[in-house]
Design goal:
87 residues; mainly alpha; 0% strand; Helicase associated domain-containing protein
């Protein structure tokens, strides 16, 4: 039960998962192989659950964190990209 409760109160993990879903959908929709997304790009509402997601900003933030050596990347590698911090 505690694991299920943690899923509901982990907005950072949910934000990460939606970003991954939106990025995957963007690649599929555009047919591109690299995530070169404009900063201002917001996922269209027609894409369902990820509609309205600020994909361009999310990717820019991740790149900035990576360049700064942020622990966000180490955490993602440790958790397999799930977005949670459990190790």
């Amino acid at each position: 039960m505690a694991g299920a409760l943690a899923w509901f109160i982990d907005p950072e993990g949910a934000y990460w998962r939606r970003g991954i879903e939106a990025a995957t959908r963007w690649l599929r929709e555009t047919g591109k192989t690299e995530l070169r997304v404009r900063y201002v790009f917001v996922v269209p509402d027609e894409w369902g659950a990820v509609g309205g997601y600020p994909l361009g900003r999310w990717i820019a933030d991740l790149r900035r964190y990576h360049a700064a050596g942020s622990s966000v990347w180490r955490g993602a590698a440790r958790t397999g990209g799930r977005g949670d911090r459990a190790g």
